[in-house]
């Protein structure tokens, strides 16, 4: 024999008609899953290959291990560099005195020496490259869009160097930080001259990349991501006269 029951909603509880269930079931204060975050959550779809990455990112931001940062990112899948070729030997007169308020006379008694820009800007010709800035993420460090930077791949990167970094397969120019993610100890003497760790050691300590523009996010690599330093930025060639 089949028995059909009709259901209706009564005080936010679902129950068969004519049957009293008391206070069992239904929503109760402070019941159910607790939020890990101090805000509402939503459901999204992510690629299967990125599932672990997203879970690790959420876990670390929820525990305040790294700050959550939703500002702009300038990670780029391409890196346009040009190898330096020394094609000329030009000696430029060098006036060995500080320019405070005005320009010294170009008379010969002010000229102490001559400078070859190749010697001034290039330490290791075979490891030196040039590139043009295409982002404002390091604006407050003096790097404007269009500036030409000289980078050297033979220099060992250390704490607070401006570097060209590769994270997985994307590139960025940022300040290398080998201190706590919140920046609280980054000026401690113990970090002065601290080199970028080699091999697996680099994945066993805080490593992050600091932007110099409040509109851009810092980069906090996650476990499993590949981190490489391509080169250290040694000089920034800035055009001052725009005509």
Note down, in words, how this protein is organized.
- The protein is mainly beta.
- 7% of the residues lie in helices and 24% in strands.
- The protein contains two helices and eleven strands.
- The protein has helices spanning 51-62, 117-121, and strands at 7-10, 13-16, 82-83, 91-95, 111-116, 128-132, 148-152, 162-167, 170-177, 208-210, 227-237.
- The strands form three sheets. The chain has a seven-stranded antiparallel sheet with strand order 3-6-7-11-8-9-10, with no helix packed on it.
- Strand 8 and strand 9 (170-177) form a beta hairpin.
- The radius of gyration is 29 Å and the shape is elongated.
- It starts with 6 loop residues before the first strand and ends in a 6-residue tail after the last strand.
- The model is unreliable at 5-20 (pLDDT under 50).
Q: What is the arithmetic mean of pLDDT?
A: 78
| Backbone structural class | mainly beta
Number of strands: 11
Shape: elongated
Oligomeric composition of the shown chains: single chain
Can you write the helix and strand succession as a string? EEHEEEHEEEEEE
Please give the order of strands in the largest beta sheet.
3-6-7-11-8-9-10
Strand content: 15-25%
The major sheet is characterized as: 7 strands, antiparallel
Which spans have pLDDT < 50 for at least 5 consecutive residues?
A: 5-20
**Percentage of residues assigned to helices:** under 10%
Question: Rg from C-alpha positions?
Answer: 29 Å
Distance between the termini: 96 Å
The count of helical stretches stands at 2
